[in-house]
């Protein structure tokens, strides 16, 4: 780190423009304010949403862009008003670093649904109008209110992906009451899907994986799935018709929603946590028949994120990861797009 005029310059990997390869650079970090913590980043997960945003898949981005919202590290400095953390604490930062803190959703612990819009960990503007830079860097300064504690029972490298993949799947599973007596289907066995399987199984639900092929069946069963079906086999949709209380779709490609909604029981819900870049179509009779719900879910609030981390530590649930040096980020992006990772790339920040 290099300090200049109150800010600190840190090493990072950034996309200089949309669709451009990421390259090593430096970015500024603000001074540690009264309520801030300075985090020495140890590991940062690579999320598919990093690729969507670095390549303008979800709309025009802010460049240069330092992706990364699955951050695990250690506190190295705290502001004078910080009460929750101390130097040496193991902490994490997820998909947001601020919100209005005053709207009804923020007051309810649903900062992810802040009515004024939360401030993303990267590809966003903070309350001062300055761009935010994410976890593909050596250090980050974050308000303690948007920092969570990583329990001692979780290694930092396997904990990093929990800050997005973990909470993104835990939140809908908890909200829709996955547990004993409930039949849950997980669509896709990737970075999000493999955590959905682990968490739903730990909650006590009967878990089925719905994947394009049976290529990862052995993995799925080892991760906690009770059943595994290929969606490329049309008989799957007939065989499993009206079988599930809850379907969690983790894929970021458009799905034939009407077919999947046919797999729900009466009053069942299909919740989408993967966000395709393209619009999807729907015949409303697919939800009218059976009083079904088609829903979405976005990450979780700070309190729920801490709850998720504690749950994962209690049940020994870390992500399945492939640890890489930072100079392999661009290669990792291509492999994610090719579904060639089991199941989350994690950057060793010491190599940035």
TrEMBL record:
Keyword flag Nucleus: no
CDD domains for this protein: CAD1
Annotated GO MF terms: alcohol dehydrogenase (NADP+) activity; zinc ion binding
Catalytic activity: a primary alcohol + NADP(+) = an aldehyde + NADPH + H(+)
Residue ranges occupied by any Enoyl reductase (ER) domain in the UniProt entry: 20-347
Entry keywords, A to Z: Metal-binding, Oxidoreductase, Zinc
Residues forming coiled coils: none
Domain of life: Bacteria
Needed cofactors: Zn(2+)
PROSITE patterns hit by this protein: ADH_ZINC
EC number per UniProt: 1.1.1.2
UniProt enzyme class: oxidoreductase
Cited PANTHER family: ALDEHYDE REDUCTASE
Family (UniProt): Belongs to the zinc-containing alcohol dehydrogenase family.
The protein, known as: alcohol dehydrogenase (NADP(+))
């Amino acid at each position: 780190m290099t300090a200049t005029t109150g800010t600190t310059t840190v090493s990072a990997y950034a996309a200089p423009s949309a669709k451009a390869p990421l390259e090593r650079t430096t970015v500024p970090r603000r001074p540690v304010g009264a309520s801030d913590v300075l985090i020495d980043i140890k590991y940062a997960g690579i999320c598919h949403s990093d690729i969507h945003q670095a390549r303008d898949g979800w709309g025009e981005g802010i460049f240069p862009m330092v992706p990364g919202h699955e951050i695990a590290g250690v506190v190295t400095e705290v502001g004078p008003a910080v009460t929750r953390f101390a130097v040496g604490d193991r902490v994490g930062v997820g998909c947001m670093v601020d919100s209005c803190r005053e709207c009804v959703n923020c007051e309810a612990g649903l900062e992810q649904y802040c009515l004024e819009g939360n401030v993303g960990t990267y590809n966003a503007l903070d309350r001062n109008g300055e761009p935010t830079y994410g976890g593909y860097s050596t250090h980050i300064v974050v308000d303690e209110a948007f920092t969570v504690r990583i329990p001692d029972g979780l290694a930092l490298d396997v904990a990093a992906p929990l800050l997005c993949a973990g909470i993104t799947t835990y939140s809908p599973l908890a909200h829709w009451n996955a547990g004993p007596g409930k039949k849950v289907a997980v669509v896709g066995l990737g970075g999000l899907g493999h955590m959905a399987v682990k968490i739903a199984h730990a909650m006590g639900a009967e878990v089925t994986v719905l994947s394009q092929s049976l290529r990862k069946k052995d993995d799925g069963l080892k991760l906690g799935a009770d059943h595994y079906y290929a969606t490329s086999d049309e008989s799957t949709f007939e065989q499993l018709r009206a079988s599930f209380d809850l379907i969690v779709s983790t894929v970021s490609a458009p799905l034939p929603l009407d077919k999947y909604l046919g797999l729900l029981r009466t009053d069942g819900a299909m919740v989408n946590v993967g966000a395709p870049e393209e619009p999807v179509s729907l015949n409303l009779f697919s939800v009218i028949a059976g009083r079904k719900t088609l829903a979405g879910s976005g990450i979780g609030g700070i309190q729920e994120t801490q709850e998720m981390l504690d749950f994962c530590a209690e049940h020994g649930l870390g992500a399945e990861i492939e640890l890489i040096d930072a100079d392999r980020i661009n290669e990792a992006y291509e492999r994610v797009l090719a579904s060639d990772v089991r199941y989350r790339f994690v950057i060793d920040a010491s190599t940035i």
